[in-house]
Amino acid sequence: IDDYSVWIEHFKGNDRSRAEGEEVGIVKLLLDKQEKPLGIQLLGPQAGELVSEWVAVMNGKVKLSAIASAVHPYPTLAEINKRVVGSIFAEKLYSETVKKGLKFFFNLRGRACGSAG
User: Fold this and answer.
1) Which element (helix H / strand E) includes 10?
2) Looking at per-residue confidence, does 41 or 97 come out higher?
3) What GO molecular function annotation could you give as one example from this UniProt entry (predicted)?
4) What CATH number does residue 48 fall under?
5) Which of 62, 76, 78, 94 is 20 to 30 Å from 114 at the Cα level?
6) How distant, in Å, are the alpha carbons of 27, 34, 55 from that of 48?
């Protein structure tokens, strides 16, 4: 596969990992050009506990947006799954295209709401 993206979240950024003293580990998500999951790699303590969400995603039963919007218990390692998916959506949300669109929209709105005078 030529065109794919890799998204990585390290355990060391997770509060539960810090509390347990188990900060070595990663979640690595591979997506194709259409942002469909190609694969997931989990390395670290309790990786087997984290994989169930990804099995549902890989089987097409759960969308990435469902993981991003899910409420995960705190503090748990499961938050790592949400963070890796959240980084995909954050990149889109804060893209230059979105910034330009918002700037254009608010400039229009500002003129329409201004006082006539």
Assistant:
1) strand 4-10
2) 41
3) dihydrolipoyl dehydrogenase (NADH) activity
4) 3.30.390.30
5) 94
6) 12, 27, 11
